[in-house]
Amino acid sequence: MVCPRCNSDVPEVSHFCHHCGNDVRSGDAERKKAYAARPDEPVASFRLVSTIMPQGSGRQPYTYKVALGIALLLTVVTAALGALPVAIMVAAFSIPIVYILYLYDVNLWEDEPIPVVAAAFVLTGVLAAVFTWLWSDKIQLSTSTFGGNDGSPAGRDLLLLLLLVPVVSELIRQVGPLILASRPRYDDLMDGFTFGVVAGVGYACFETLVLFWGWISGGFAGPGSSVGTWISVVVLHGFIKPLVYGSATGLAGAEFSGLGEGYDGFTPRWVAGLIQAMAVNALFQGGVYLLGFVGGHGSTIGSILGVVWGLLLLGALIIRVRTVLHKGLLEAALEAAARGGSNHASGDQAFCSRCEMPLLPHSDFCSACGNSVRSVPKSARGTAVPAAATGYDATTGETQA
Ligand SMILES: [Zn+2]
Ligand SMILES: [Zn+2]
């Protein structure tokens, strides 16, 4: 049969067009029920792991979920017990560590010299620490952002949190992804997104360490607030903030990489992504600050509302990321189909890393399960023989004898 979207010849048995990813059976033209990077999930979903870790979610979804769950539990318990130095350290490092494990899992580095990648992110971390120290310690807010504040918001604080911090911090978060995404090895849409997430998560870690240095160095005595405030603060800064920063910066990174071969660079789309990320950041900072005044002095309500506000923003961002990546993967495949298909899946006998069915030559999508070949780590794309036959270990990319 002929695919109605890209006019390629598609075998009668196909469920999805292997060139453009079109669902040729159900007529769901936009594939709303089959997310390109995870076809068994709908596009509009709040599933975190398959959103921020799109390349590995098919293989080890539980590892990341369990690791994140344990870290969250540990943070809440230590904060509830008043062990704030431990709680804030666990909060600051949990998501960065899980994300590093993910990058190692999907073998993102592959042949690239690790020093280049490490240098890009050490730079992000140093800039994050210096800038956070400058605005929080040298310029200083007139009240804390932990909630339970007296009086009313100050205009100077709002200017700082709605303008200076979002704009400068987002520019800092763009440095690493732009350096890496402009290397030919990493010009893919998914790479740009992933590097953006890394930069956001890394920035959040250093920002948290600087902002809460007093908690870390102050021993086990708390800052005189309630347990509810402590738990809200560590959950907000350790788990919600890195994901908000990461997905917003990731969206801009994906626009920098663009759809086709090579990177698109500083296009209007990248500028729009950058402004969107700054706006998200301003909404996050400003919202948490303003909600901190609800309930008045010593109240826990303000900090809990800050967590709720962060979750709402994160939910909206997750949907946005999934929509952008989904459309991007489908659009890129349509463009490639017009040129006769791409070489993402190489070899005469490549197999889908998700369902292990054979891939047709020049596939951008698996014709059986509809998974995007580009959503799979590059090392696993050209899998020559299925796992069961040779002991090929998809998690390490190695073949055991
Ligand atoms: Zn097609
Ligand atoms: Zn498949």
Automatic annotation (TrEMBL):
In Gene Ontology terms, what is one molecular function of this protein?
peptidase activity
Q: What is an example of a Pfam family matching this protein?
A: PrsW-protease
Q: Which InterPro entries does the protein's record reference?
A: PrsW
Keywords (alphabetical) are: Membrane, Transmembrane, Transmembrane helix
Q: At the top level of its lineage, which domain of life is listed?
A: Bacteria
Instruction: Please give the start and end residues of each transmembrane region.
Output: 62-80, 116-135, 193-216, 228-249, 270-294, 300-319
Q: What is this protein called?
A: RsiW-degrading membrane proteinase PrsW (M82 family)
Q: What organism is this sequence from?
A: Kribbella antiqua
